[in-house]
Specification:
The complex is a heterodimer of chains A (about 110) and B (about 220). With about 110 residues, chain A is mostly helical. Chain A is about 80% helix and about 0% strand. The chains are: A mainly alpha (about 110), B alpha/beta (about 220).
Chain lengths: ~110, ~220
């Protein structure tokens, strides 16, 4: 086993333990638990059995397995950033709506 | 007809007092929306015997304008005027601004700084032409001054506006709404008083880029 594999396995184990802990402490829901477990077990699989990515590379028509893994990760990461962006915008406008509601109703805030 | 001026104000202690005093002659009621100011903006507004609404935290121009319009409607406004707190608008131009509404020729009037042949700092001019183009390209709304802060709406016009944006991009959003809701719009030439202070309060390059991104982003939301 090469050093990078060892490193990533150690990291995955740590992150997975945190995910389970967060779930137990009710910081994330069942959906979150399953989602993040899926992501990190995929990472574990790819690291432990690098050949699995070869199959993926063939399907996608990319040269090497590791390339396919990098491409897919990037696509996923950008998708998540987009989702977070959408969510943030929603939260921003929700906050504005609350602040507006208070401004228009609260007598202490106006004369 | 009850004319209500709304002044969005975020840390405008230097100019707000003067703007309010100059405005009093021209409108029936003044409403200041304090957007979470941390300076003396609120005290100054309170000393002027006008209506004040306060955002507990800063939400940006779009957030304040919507609060202001709702407040004005609650106060029974027939005509709503928006005017900047930095003193760049001349209140004596209000009669001219609201004339098309009184004559029932328009439900929205935009005060345009470009219909007068008045010198404008080059950077401003280029920036404004750019935003006019963006507003036209994205929303099909033709205007000579897409970023103007001096506007007037009839009650009907104000009620049809649906504002979602929080920041400076609201100026383009209002024009988009005018276009989509087929609100009758007129542009009226206004002067702009450029002082070092009002220039420092406007949009520089970086906030301008941020506004552009927000305008582009709003395409996804609707």
């Amino acid at each position: 086993m090469v050093f990078i594999q060892f490193l990533i396995i150690a990291l995955s184990a740590f992150v997975i333990s945190r995910i389970i802990l967060s779930f137990r402490r009710n910081k994330i829901g069942l959906k979150g638990l399953l989602f993040w477990l899926l992501i990190w077990s995929t990472i574990l699989t790819v690291v432990l059995l690098p050949k699995t990515t070869g199959l993926l590379a063939k399907i996608l028509g990319v040269g090497r397995g590791s390339d396919a893994a990098v491409y897919l990760s990037l696509v996923l990461i950008f998708y998540f950033i987009f989702r977070i962006f959408v969510r943030l915008e929603k939260i921003e406008s929700d906050i504005t709506a609350i602040v507006r509601g208070i401004a228009l109703k609260d007598k202490d805030n106006r004369k | 007809m009850k004319t209500v001026a709304i002044i969005p104000a975020f840390n405008e202690e230097k100019t707000l007092g003067g703007v309010i005093s100059d405005l009093k002659k021209y409108v029936n009621q003044i409403i200041v929306i304090d957007d979470g100011s941390t300076d003396k903006t609120n005290q100054i507004a309170r000393s002027k015997n006008i209506k004040i609404y306060r955002h507990l935290i800063n939400r940006g121009l779009g957030g304040v304008l919507k609060t202001g319009i709702e407040a004005a409607l609650q106060n029974g406004a027939d005509i709503i005027i928006t005017i900047d707190a930095d003193g760049q608008h001349d209140p004596s131009e209000i009669p001219k601004l609201i004339k098309p509404i009184i004559e029932q020729k328009a439900d929205a009037v935009i005060g345009s700084r470009f219909l007068t042949r008045q010198p404008m700092p080059l950077f401003r001019r280029v920036g404004n032409i750019f935003f006019n183009f963006v507003t036209f390209f994205l929303f099909g709304a033709k205007t000579t001054d897409s970023q103007s802060g001096m506007r007037a709406f009839s009650k009907k016009g104000a009620q049809s506006l649906e504002i979602h944006s929080n920041g400076m991009e609201v100026s383009s959003e209002i024009l988009k709404e005018i276009k989509i809701k087929k609100i009758r719009m007129k542009e009226v030439p206004i002067k702009s008083i450029y002082t070092d202070y009002s220039l420092s309060k406007g949009q520089g390059l970086l906030p301008g880029i941020k506004t552009l991104i927000k305008i582009l982003w709003s395409l996804f939301n609707f």
